[in-house]
Amino acid sequence: MSAAGPRLALLDYGAGNLVSIEQALVAVGAQVGRATGPADLRGVDVLVVPGVGAAAPAMARLAESGLLEPVREWLAAGRPYLGICLGLQLLFEASDEDGARTFGRLPGRVERLAGVLRLPHIGWNSVERGGPHPLFAGIPPEACFYFVHSYAGLPPGGLEHPAVLGSTTHGGSFPSALVDEALVGVQFHPERSGPDGLRLLANALAILGGSTAFRPSPATAGPA
Amino acid sequence: MTLRHRVIACLDVAAGRVVKGTRFLDLVDEGDPAELAARYAAEGADEIVFLDIAAAPEGRGTLLDVVERTARTVFVPLTVGGGVRSVEEMRDVLRAGADRVSLNTAAVADPVLITRCAERFGRQAVVVAIDARRRTAGESWEVVVRGGRQPTGLDALTWAGRAVELGAGELLLTSMDQDGTQAGFDLAFLHAVSRRVPTPVIASGGAGGPADFVAAVQEGGADAVLAASIFHRRLVSIAEVKSAMAAAGLPVRPVGGLAA
User: Fold this and answer.
1) Which stretches of chain A are assigned E, i.e. beta strand?
2) Which residue of B has its CA nearest to A151?
3) Nearest CB to B258 within list A140, A150, A191
């Protein structure tokens, strides 16, 4: 790792909007490059996997770009990974949305949100936390984050699973923030969640990169 | 807590600039979309919508540039509509930095476009905008396209149900009778659609004061509320709308990201 902090690769596999997450990572002081093929992962310290939509086309596009096996190996080696929305869902074993087999780094399946009248779950919602954790350092408990999805990963034991750090209620409750060793995953979009989202990104990178260099941009940060 | 009702600020964009006037005539240049989006985000908007009202093929590059500049400065969700006619055009708008794309005229002409876009990008990325005009007799509305200038003969409730079946993740419902009048949303139209579809719906067209937004949710069944000109002209602030909604017991995200 360089003195300027860890190097991030933003996985670019054609899954929609990368501009927002890229800019948000820059805003919290990260060095970001886009990874479109295996060679782009060399010298990288933290892998950031964004994405929205369904798992099967995402896995297919990862395979086409030659990134599927490198990401699998990355996860098997326990290297730092930040998964956002679909990037979190891909860590589970499989998705009920289209039957896709995914990385299986976390136990359990991605299931349709239960007990709710209206889907997709679109908009700002809270994250209930089990207790204090560095991922939420400086973020008030009432903070809202932006969600846009119909499915969520459910590990065995549900919200009681040790990796589950926070949960969100829309009809039923589902895990919305998970941390497991060098892996951080959130179902919401911190890059679209205003100053609190930027703070959470900075916290995630500090956890994953072993660095305290990250800070919310002074121009956009709310009161800590 | 539960999902908050969104208050959405809409900007009409033509040739890379925010315009206003009557919606499609006498357009006046009102500024830079990215700057205005940033202002709305700072004032507490939960989402920004850009509608490219010129929607001319030669202006697409300009629109994509505006979307990207906005996405790089504003960290709230951005939905872009106007003139998207293909999966490839939707891909370009998303890659420029939009989170969701709104389909309107092209979806009426080619309904399966909704399905193709949803299969490629997920249903949550596809908004179908329905502009409707009340028929003279009874509780019935007709879909109009091309900015309200062209009637289609389509029943708006039927089309709403079909659009969701085809893959729409949300409906943006604009009453062309109410649009620009500040006389309130068409609550009967909102109610008729929202009870028919399992997706969220956005109320648009006619907002005049904070009470109108409360009624759109409570009586119309809307999940989100949208306005353009009254925010733009500072007749009503987003904070005032959210205060009225909170006072009525509706969950909203407090302005400034801090709890009220």
Assistant:
1) 7-11, 31-35, 46-49, 81-84, 94-95, 109-112, 121-126, 128-129, 144-149, 151-154, 164-170, 172-180, 183-186
2) B124
3) A140
User: What contacts B229, CB < 8 A, 6 or more positions away?
Assistant: B20, B180, B235
> Any catalytic annotation for residue B12?
yes
- How many Å apart are CA B101 and CA B216, to the nearest integer? 23
A 10 A CB-CB count for B237 gives 15
pLDDT tens for A49-81 read 998 778 898 999 999 999 999 999 999 999 999
CA distance B221 to A31: 45
The residue among A11, A145, A19, A17 whose CA lies nearest residue A83 is: A11
Residue of B nearest to A55 (CA): B122
B209: left (phi over 0), alpha (psi -120 to 50) or beta: beta
**In chain A, where does DSSP find H-type helix?**
19-27, 55-64, 68-76, 86-89, 194-209
Tokens 């309200």 belong to B148
CB distance B125–A27 less than 8 Å? no
Q: Contact, A102 vs A94, CB < 8 A?
A: yes
pTM: predicted TM-score of the whole model, two decimal places: 0.94
Which SS3 state, helix, strand or coil, does residue A200 take? helix
Q: Which of B224, B177, B228, B226 is nearest to B200 (CA)?
A: B224
* B96/A170 CB distance under 8 A: no
Predicted confidence at residue B24, as pLDDT, reads 53
Q: Which two tokens stand for residue A28?
A: 């919290």
A contacts of B96 (beta carbons < 8 Å) = 19
CA distance B71 to B76: 8
Q: What is the pLDDT of residue A213?
A: 56
Name the burial class of residue A90, with classes exposed (0-12), middle (13-18) and buried (19+) by CB atoms within 10 angstroms of its CB.
Answer: buried
| Radius of gyration of chain B from its Cα atoms, rounded to whole angstroms | 17
Closest CA to B10 of B52, B69, B56: B52
Angle, alpha carbons B88-A111-A186 (nearest 5°): 75
Element (H, E) at B101: strand B100-103
SS3 A38: helix
Compute the distance between CA of residue B187 and CA of residue B210 in angstroms, rounded to an integer. Answer: 15
> pLDDT tens-digit profile of A145-161?
999 999 999 999 999 99
Pairwise CA distance, residues B50 & A55, whole Å: 28
Chain A residue closest in CA terms to B70:
A20
% of chain B with per-residue pLDDT over 70: 95
Contact list in B for residue A52 (CB cut-off 8 A) is 99, 121-122, 124-125
Instruction: Tell me which of B52, B92, B131, B186 is the catalytic residue.
Output: B131
